[in-house]
Amino acid sequence: MQERTIITTVGMSLLTNAQRDLGLPREKPPGPTELAQYLQDTPPEKASAETNSLSRLLQEGDHIIFLRSQTEEGQRCAEALARHYENQGHPSRVVEVPDLTYTESRFKMRGLRALVATLIGHIREEQGKGRQVLINATGGFKAEIAYATLVGLLFDVPVYYIHEAFRDIIEMPPTPIGWDYSLLADHEEFFEWISTDLRETREVDARLRGLPEEVRLLLVEEEGYTLLSPAGEAFYEAYRSRKDATAGTPIWLSGAAWRTYRDAVPDVQAGFRRVLEKLRMREVWIRRSEIPRNSDCQVYPRGHRDERVFFYEEDGNIYVCELARHSDKSYERLLERGVRRAHYGGWKRLEG
Hints:
The chain is α/β, with parallel strands linked by helices. The chain has helices at 13-21, 32-41, 44-47, 49-57, 72-87, 104-128, 142-154, 182-186, 188-195, 201-208, 213-216, 230-245, 255-263, 266-278, 282-288, 330-337, and strands spanning 4-9, 63-68, 92-96, 132-136, 159-162, 169-172, 199-200, 219-222, 225-228, 251-253, 298-300, 307-314, 317-325, 348-349.
């Protein structure tokens, strides 16, 4: 049976419940020993939101990662839970999410983005170990459930939480949706640029001129800087993961396409390379390609782009018949002449 890891967000319900049930005054919260005893003596359905949900999810041998806020209360609850489940035979560890605090501005601007990045990082890490990953989003701030669900949907990971009204566990299963990554693919250079460093808002605004308004919807401004919003972070990282997953899709250049690619100056060759790499993602080119007049090939990308690739897909392979550009009129000349699959051969696989 495949090993599993349950990534669990942690709130304060353990601390609140223990303080109430043990009759402790507000100014004297329970310490580690009292929390440990409380977890041992109290049914999991009543001890905390995390134990309630985990009691319905845990299987023998499951690993648990507890994601906690950057607060003293979050640390106390997460560490108590980790020790409790470690003693029950479930390897457990606590991970602090930076800037996930009670300060509204930090929570909204930085904390949720850090939560998204932390979730994605641990999903990749655990999947890299061959484990199935589940997200248990019952504990913590309400907004965490929304972003945990978004990450789960984008990364094909099931998300669970306890429904407040029905007191039953709700599953948001992985959804077989072909996400539209074409906006990210079309403007990949911008998203790569803004994600690699802190960018001043005036610098970002200058680069946004001429880009679709939808790009701005994935950004947020903070103290003179503009960066990816929590949703933008999730979508961009999902795009990168999908791109990595399809990196092995074979791309074959015809003899004509190979000569055009080989003889191009470095900047032009790099432009062709970026477009060719995106052809590996079917969900990208299927939304951004068309069959033009006088051709039985698809052309990608459409719209206001210089590079044009004439291609077709067959048995999971991408076959590129011609590479062309608007700036040198080679695209227009090919349309006049006609581009037909049967006219091409001498296929050479694009390396890398």
